[in-house]
Specification:
By secondary structure, this protein is mainly beta. It has one domain (1-30, 41-73): SH3 type barrels, CATH 2.30.30. Helices cover 0% and strands 32% of the residues. It has a five-stranded antiparallel β-sheet with strand order 4-3-2-1-5, with no helix packed on it. It starts with 7 loop residues before the first strand and ends in a 7-residue tail after the last strand.
């Protein structure tokens, strides 16, 4: 998968969200790591098709799978 943006995806744990479209990649707001528990992992803003008005925050790629079942991280 060369470009994740615009791809269909599902959340690994939340089946209630249903199918979504990846809108853009989101980087957590940490400019630099100041503590070992901070993460700089990739996250994605997703438009959930079953819940178009639900303002779901960006979700880490490791919690999203594409239609073939492969994690987006």
């Amino acid at each position: 998968m060369n470009s994740i943006i615009g791809s269909l995806c599902r959340h690994m744990q939340s089946h209630a969200l249903g199918l979504g479209v990846v809108m853009y990649e989101y980087k957590p707001p940490f400019g630099e790591k100041t503590h070992s528990t901070q993460t700089l992992k990739k996250a994605y803003k997703v438009h959930w098709l079953q819940h178009p008005r639900l303002d779901v925050p960006p979700i880490l790629g490791e919690h999203l799978i594409n239609m073939q079942g492969v994690a987006l991280d």
